[in-house]
Amino acid sequence: MPSIQNNIKYGFIKNNKLYFTISSTLNKYDKDNIINTIKMILKSPMILESDKFIECFNIEIEDVIVYVDHKPKVIFKPHCTDSHSLTYKERSSGEFEINLHDEKLNSLARAIQEIIKKTNSDEA
Predict the structure, then answer these.
(1) Is residue 46 pLDDT above 60, yes or no?
(2) CA 13, 21, 42, 27: dihedral to nearest 10 degrees?
(3) C-beta of residue 109 within 8 angstroms of C-beta of residue 100
(4) Predicted confidence (pLDDT) per residue in 83-99, tens digit
(5) For the chain, what is the HEC assignment?
(6) For 38-51, what is the mean pLDDT?
(7) With contact defined as beta carbons under 8 Å apart, do 67 and 23 qualify?
C-alpha cells in the first residue's frame, strides 16, 4: 500500500524474518495492522505467481517485525547519468610493465594490455 510504502525507511531479511523500519508518521499503535497487511501481501497470488517478484521466490518468511524510528525520513535521490552513452579515449599506449606473481592475474593483465595495444594501432 502506498501509505505504508512511502513511510518505510528500510527493510531486510535475516533468518527468514522480514524486518522493516517505518517512520513515526504512521501510527505506531497500528503496527499489528501493518504486520498483518505485509503478511497478507506476501502470501497473495500476485507475489507467489508473478515473474516480477523474483527476489521473493524460494524465500519463506516466517515472521514480519516492524520497528518505528522517530527520526525524520531523509529522502535521498541518487544522481543518475546516461552511463551507457559515456565513452572515453584510452590514454594508455599499452606500454607498461606487468609484475604479477599470480598466473591468472598476470595473463588477465597481459590480455588487457594486448587489447589496449590493438585499439591504439587500429586508431592510428
Answers:
(1) yes
(2) 160
(3) yes
(4) 556 666 777 888 889 99
(5) CHHHHCCEEEEEEECCEEEEEEECCCCHHHHHHHHHHHHHHHCCHHHHCCCCCHHHCCCCCCEEEEEEECCCCCCCCCCCCCHHHCCCCCCCCCCCCCCCCCHHHHHHHHHHHHHHHHHHHHHC
(6) 72
(7) no
- Return the C-alpha cell found at 91: 590514454
pTM of the predicted model as reported, rounded to 2 decimal places: 0.47
Please write down the long-range contacts of 54-58, taking CB distance under 8 Å and 24 or more positions apart.
none
The residues near 117 (Cβ < 8 Å, ≥ 6 apart) are 93, 94
Residue type, 54: I
Which sign, positive or negative, has the C-alpha torsion 29, 37, 25, 63?
Answer: positive
Under 8 Å between Cβ of 15 and 61: no
More confident of the two residues 53 and 108: 108
Q: Which position has the grid cell 505504508?
A: 4
